[in-house]
Write a structure and sequence with these properties.
- The protein folds into 2 domains: 124 residues, MutM-like, N-terminal (N-terminal domain of MutM-like DNA repair proteins, Alpha-Beta Barrel); 126 residues, Helicase, Ruva Protein, domain 3 (Orthogonal Bundle).
- It has 7 helices and 11 strands.
- Helix 6 packs across helix 7.
- 42% of the residues are buried.
- The structure holds a DNA duplex (16 and 16 nucleotides).
Length: 274
DNA sequence: CCCCTATCCTGAGGGC
DNA sequence: TGCCCTCAGGATAGGG
């Protein structure tokens, strides 16, 4: 599941191939993936526009286009956005293909279809609430002082459920929520209101740490994640707890406990994490 | 307002 | 081998 480090890996991969390129043609193979914008006019609106910038906000990828549009992509659970040559056969579940003026292609694929594509000017997208409100960026300067600590300590929800809320922290998903809780030695099932200031501080230091390390390793590829060229990352081999329920804790050797928080599989060490 | 659960969807993996 | 069942989860609608 692409979270912040995976999405950032893709953005950095794609940026040098996309910026400055013009869109020659767009093929919206499965119109239902377009959640904002008109499917019928979509190809005409994109054709001829130049890609000016490729950026990320939370788990959203933004292609800023020359006529003022943003083409926005969210990868959901199983989405991928990759460069390909026009001669490569398209994989099953490819929903959008964009031909560029250098005869390369940008392909959007998403078997499970939890992802989405949006097209509009930033004003249109924000005016009609097409994009959700997003909290601070964990990798931005000032993250630990951004007010996240206060919102975590103010909620009665389980701390991991709050971390997964994109309005609280942008870009955090199931993997790195578990990893950050482990590194901070905090039980993910604790209520936010039960955390001390010292504990929220540890958590807000741990989250960027685990994300930077995952970014260095080009993301976690459990089943579906692929970078901008279709290759796997290596961060999943370095994870402390995610996917390791029932296995020994890397720190103390105790058996890692697996439960559910907010409908998500959650793994933690009963001895290390209080 | 706040919190929680069900829902969308396909493919992988287990059991028999 | 093949069939059926369960499970994985990001975002969000709707209920309590």
């Amino acid at each position: 599941m692409p979270e912040l480090p995976e999405v950032e890996t893709i953005v950095r991969d794609l940026r040098p191939h996309l910026v400055g390129r013009a869109i020659a043609k767009a093929d919206l193979i499965r119109p239902s993936v377009l959640r904002f914008g008109q499917p019928d006019s979509f190809p005409f609106r994109l054709a001829g526009q130049q890609i000016r910038a490729v950026t990320r906000r939370g788990k959203f990828i933004h292609l800023r286009l020359s006529e003022g549009d943003d083409l926005v992509v969210h990868l959901g659970m199983t989405g991928s956005l990759t460069m390909a040559s026009a001669s490569t056969p398209r994989a099953l579940h490819t929903h959008l293909v964009i031909d560029l003026d250098d005869r390369s292609q940008l392909r959007y694929r998403d078997p499970r279809r939890f992802g989405r594509v949006l097209l509009g000017t930033p004003a249109q997208l924000s005016r009609l609430g097409a994009l959700p409100r997003l909290g601070p960026e964990p990798l931005a300067r000032g993250f630990t002082e951004s007010g996240v600590a206060e919102s975590l300590r103010a909620t009665s929800r389980q701390i991991k459920a709050a971390l997964l809320d994109q309005a609280v922290v942008a870009g955090c998903g199931n993997i790195y929520a578990d990893e950050a809780c482990f590194l901070a030695r905090i039980r993910p099932i604790r209520r936010g209101s039960s955390l001390t200031r010292a504990e929220t501080t540890r958590l807000l230091l741990a989250l960027p740490l685990v994300m930077r390390e995952a970014l260095r390793l080009r993301g976690s590829s459990f089943s579906d994640f692929r970078d901008g060229f279709g290759a796997k990352g290596e961060a999943h081999e370095a994870l402390f707890v995610y996917g390791r329920g029932g296995l020994p804790c890397v720190r103390c050797g105790a058996t890692l406990r697996q439960t559910r928080v907010g409908g998500r599989t959650t793994v933690y060490c009963q001895r290390c994490q209080r």
